[in-house]
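Researcher: Structure for this, please.
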Amino acid sequence: MSVELPERYRMWVERLSAPAWRERKQATTVLRELVELDVDKPEVLEAVAEHLLDGLVSKEAINGRAACHEVLVAIGPRATAGLLRRLDQPGTGQRLLVDLLGEIGDPSHAGCLARIVTDRAAETNLRGSAAVALGKLGGTDAAAALESLLGDPTSMLRVHALEALRSGGLQVPLVRATTLLIDPYTRKAAAAVLGNSARIEAAALLVPLLEDDMAGVRATAAVSLVRIDTRLEGADEIAAMLRRVSPQARSHIRGLLDNRALEVRVAAIKLAGLAGDSEIVPLLLSAMDDPILGEQALLTAACLGEDAAKHVLAAKSRTDERSYHHLLRLIGALRPPVDGRLLVLLTESLVGTDDDRAIAAAEALERVGGRSCLAELCRALQHPGRRGESAADAIVAILRREDALEELERCVDQPWPQQGCLAANLCRVVGELGSQLYTGQLVAMLGSPDVQVRVAAAGALGQVEGEHEGAGALAFALADEEPQVRAAACRSLGQLKAAGSVQPLASATEDRSPMVRAAAVQALVALDNPVGLARLRAVIAEDPVPSVVVQAIVGLGCSGLEQDLTMLMSLCTSDDWEVVKAAARALLHFPEHRATAALLGLLDHARWDVRWAAAEVLAARADLTALASLRRALPAEQDRVVRKVIRDAIAKLESLR
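Model: Predicted structure, token format:
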């Protein structure tokens, strides 16, 4: 079939078979970009696909086969018609065509591949490739064809079929699996397929494989057991089976921690927990440097409970400095109440110069600590950074868990400190608690000589709900000499939503610091007060700093008033693209067609992110009058991210018709 290749593609298609690798790579990249641009031109893509399919199976242009394959994958379903036509004409390149169909086809193409799989006269490698492709396509037809291949006398084809079933998430009948597990050649592949099952009977076939002589089979069985357990949401039957396994099987499970594959090591840790094998606890410490293994280790420690606690205590003296913080994390994974000796171990670790150890101890106490730990945690608040913050989080958690907010008063010297990390972290604690019990101390800290303490106190007061003296103190803090404090006070007044805060915040919108003005505007928006709305309009008209104006625009977007619509439309012509984006998003809540017209005008904006924002808002507004303009804008759009948003907007609006 001869189809003329579009001119802009011609040179690059010819370069796909160039002798130099760099030329082929460049041609592939350019062609993928052209295909993306022509995604809505099926006739062009089908013509290009015809030429690339010829190149894929050509005997002369062997160098270009991989490049042709890559571009054909980018073209996708538009290439399947030509592919199927060539597949019906046996000859050179059949395996290449089969491999491609596995990547760009769908379950409706399974019948074509099934004919190859079941044709015993066909070449063995071609049948194997067809089996792999069927696994990628999936579906009932693919499953049936692959299942029929499991009885083929050729071992390699049986393995290909099993691998295809596994990769396609398909299942194998348990009766057939039992036979395949007997054969050493197919045992590993059959164990992998059983992991697709959601039946406890499949798990029963896998458990004995944990004692298999082949390490690869044991690893595969472990991974499949975990997959079944996840699918059955932790069925007790699997745990019961694992608790009955032999000491040798338990040893084999622990041995899987040395496997190179992360998935196998994760499975080993989880299965040890289900089997109740607490002997794995000391081995977990060396694995916990990996965050994924560390997370599973904590879950396993929680599953093992008191048995894990005994091994943690025993491992204390044998754990090196590098892994000691992992030991502390394991304690935090246990369910409270925990052994008092473990709590002592945690509180002792709060002291010293090792930040990692102290942070791990504080995080563990956050989960399992009690009142007896509060005094040492309060002393740890004097440390800067994450160390002191972790101690603060632990105190909050314990006070809430014990329902003993008043305990904080007993653990801190009187009067409360007014400067330093201890004072700032105490503010953090009180703010997180959100109780008015310590509002007086926070108000006092607003007069601290330490700027960071004043910032922390101002921020904490915004978290204390209800009417209290803090609102008035925050209004006074708007006159603080430090802009950080004034900005924090603005944000907290917005959180408290106190009625008397409108005027102080309106005044703060004229502050000399842009940071304070932005915070004040943000707080006025949160108050949603008509008086504040008038001030927001003035800020937009007068403030020279775009970040402040953007915050005010957000407030205007909620008013729904005609005068605000007019202002937002005029802002869509601003020279500052952040202002334009904010105005576009604010138009979301204005149903008038004028708003739609303004957004459509932004689809021609020079900035890609402005066009992106406009398209998103047009989709969310559900105004069908925008559909025609969006369709016209799509072919001209050069940015792939924006094209996707426009296509999504078109699809959403079309669904509303």
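Researcher: Any notable elements?
Model: The chain has 41 helices and no strands. The mean pLDDT is 90.
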